[in-house]
Amino acid sequence: ILGYAVLALLNTVIAATIGRRREFALQRLIGATRGQLMRMMSVEALLTALAGIALGTVVAVGTLIPFQFALDRTPWPHGPLWIYVAIVGGAVLLTLGATLGPASAVVRSRHL
Questions:
Q1: One pLDDT digit (tens) per residue for the chain, 112 residues
Q2: Distance of CA 107 to the CA centre of its chain
Q3: What single string gives the DSSP state of each residue in 6-66?
Q4: Residue 28 near residue 112 (C-beta atoms within 8 A)
Q5: What secondary structure letter does DSSP report for 107?
């Protein structure tokens, strides 16, 4: 399931980024540099990753707290923090890679 979710995310983000070719061309026409376009895409990718991480955390906490309370009457789930950090880091890297790779290719293309 995780592999399918990753592939679906990659396909969606890559298609959406490549579909913005006309927007990038218009921004280049009004004077934006390639570096500015890539910085804009970096900020967008980070905001998207942070929104996904925040929503995913809220959903996970919303389901884990009642489950943890039913198991041993403590309100907060416990476990190694590195697992959460690894998931957050993976989400950020995946989003940045799926956004900046295609954006870089589109910005460098001669048809822009």
A1: 888 988 998 899 889 888 899 999 999 999 999 999 999 999 999 999 999 999 999 999 898 888 888 888 777 777 899 999 999 999 999 999 999 999 999 888 876 6
A2: 20
A3: HHHHHHHHHHHHHTTHHHHHHHHHTT--HHHHHHHHHHHHHHHHHHHHHHHHHHHHHHHHH
A4: yes
A5: H
